[in-house]
Amino acid sequence: MKVDIIGDVHGCYQELCSLFEELGYQSIDGIYLHPDNRIPVFVGDLTDRGPESIHVIQIVYEMVVKHKKAKYVPGNHCNKLYRYFLGNKVQHQHGLETTVMEYMALNEKVQDQIRSQFIELYEEAPLYLPLPEVNAVVAHAGIKQAYIGRYDNKVKTFVLYGDITGEFDKAGRPIRRDWAQHYQGDAWIVYGHTPVRNPRIVNKTINIDTGCVFGNKLTAFRLPEERIVSVPSEQPFHPDKFRSFPDS
């Protein structure tokens, strides 16, 4: 097995297509396939903030659910959109408002299709994805070594939101512990969630959310090659959206 794990897309459909092409995939019948049968793995947060969340939902559904040519784990934005589509009361902020605006502009028939596609995609997805063939685990916000194999609410919160403290910084962003510093496992933990300027490797963890929706780049991590591939973003650059670390 050879995989290409793709960071947070956040509605950046054009950049996703560019990344697939950079990785050597070919567009065939509306989906991307690799001549060497490589498998794309989406690390979550497909939608919100970016310009084409609906297109991202459509292509990921086609590749993951319909054609079984890709894999996907959900992120916190995916969880919120799922709850919206179920009819739950969720606040239209932090990017959800952009996806809802796109969705509401569609006719009723297409709305029903998109809603059912995303619900099916989300409900079929694992909370996190062990990939023993390439010695890796894919989890949206990461996962502690001790949590691998567990699927309780505590693990769900960690996988979707990271190692949150319940406190917020001056900008209103959740304060999260730097769990990667304490990871001592042998398998790669490949995750996103926290935008960083460049992929961040700590121990055997790698954060590949390089803030495409904030104007930086969209990144993939190739395994077993352990190779990073990125394409530039077409979105306006927002330097204040990126987290820096003492080791970065």
From TrEMBL:
SUPFAM superfamilies: Metallo-dependent phosphatases. Gene3D superfamilies: 3.60.21.10. CDD domains: MPP_Prp_like. Transmembrane segments: none annotated. Residues 1-196 form the Calcineurin-like phosphoesterase domain. It holds the Pfam family Metallophos. GO terms for molecular function: phosphatase activity. InterPro entries: Ap4A_hydrolase, Calcineurin-like_PHP, Metallo-depent_PP-like, MPP_PrpE-like, Ser/Thr-sp_prot-phosphatase. One of its GO terms (cellular component) is cytoplasm. PANTHER family: BIS(5'-NUCLEOSYL)-TETRAPHOSPHATASE PRPE [ASYMMETRICAL], METALLOPHOSPHOESTERASE. This is Bis(5'-nucleosyl)-tetraphosphatase PrpE. It comes from Ornithinibacillus hominis.
